[in-house]
Amino acid sequence: MNYPTAVKKFAADNTSGAQRMTEKAVTLLVARLARQKFTVTEARQILAQIARDLIFAQPSMASLFNLFNAVFERIERVRSQDSVARAARRAAQDFARAMVGHTSDISLRLVELLHDDDVVLTHSASQAVRDALSFCRRQGRRFSVICTESRPILEGVS
Length: 158
Prior knowledge:
The protein has helices at about 5-10, 20-35, 40-55, 60-75, 80-115, 125-140, and strands spanning about 120-125, 145-150. It is mainly alpha-helical.
């Protein structure tokens, strides 16, 4: 799939939560940087374009701002063309791994807080919330979940 088509598909996604969208952004970034050799300036320009495209496509996803901030922070001091793309890829992948770790932390904390017969109200789609609730269910907790949709693009509707 070409880059413009991938960005359109990314923009149209209204069912994935922030973690999944960030993982998709990382995949797009890594694929885009793997295609050819770039000068330091070109790599930075391409990263800036990817950041603009994806943040504009999903402006409510704060994790995208944080992802690209981490990437730009990592490449700031890099001077060689091979190192910029490599550092950007590593920063993006590290950020995605850290998000998974945070979800695990959330799950462990939620299982302490959630009691049988509780009702959980959540607004919009969230992979972290979904994963944490699934973890609690596997730990034997019995509870109900109400997930409301958000507007204008109906996140949370399955």
